[in-house]
Amino acid sequence: MKTLTLSWGDRPIVLETEGTRTFLRLGATLRVEVTDASVDQLEQLAQVTADLADFRWEQIRAAGVASEVAAEDGVRSIGLPVQRKQDAA
User: Fold this and answer.
1) At 80, is the secondary structure helix, strand, or coil?
2) Distance, CA of 25 to CA of 28 (rounded, Å)
3) Which of 42, 15, 51, 10 is nearest to 27 (CA)?
C-alpha cells in the first residue's frame, strides 16, 4: 500500500466531471476518481470525514481550554526554559 501525505489547508474540496468520469478534488494537487465508487463506499467516506471533523473540533477545543487556563493563571505564553551551556574559558 502506498501512503500519500497531503496538506491542503483551506483549499477547496470539489467534485469534477470529465465526460463520464467523476473525480473528488482535494486542494490543488490531489484528484481521486470516484466514478465507480459504490454508494456504500461513498457513505463510508462521508462517515470518515465526519469523524475527522469531530476529531479536529476536539483538538481546537482542547487548545482553547489550555489557553484559557493559562490566561486565568496570568500566563501569556507557555514555553520551556532553556539553559545554555557555558563556554569553556
Assistant:
1) coil
2) 8
3) 10
Whole-angstrom distance, CA of residue 51 vs CA of residue 45 = 10
Q: Which contacts qualify for 51-56: CB closer than 8 Å, 24 or more apart?
A: none
Query: For the segment 40-71, what is each residue's pLDDT rounded down to a tens digit?
Result: 999 999 999 999 999 989 888 888 776 666 66
Grid coordinates representing 38 are 459504490
Quick count: other Cβ atoms within 10 Å of Cβ 59? 10
Question: Residue 76 carries which DSSP code?
Answer: S
Q: How many CB atoms lie within 10 A of CB 45?
A: 14
Is this structure's pTM higher than 0.85? no
How is residue 71 written as a grid cell? 490566561
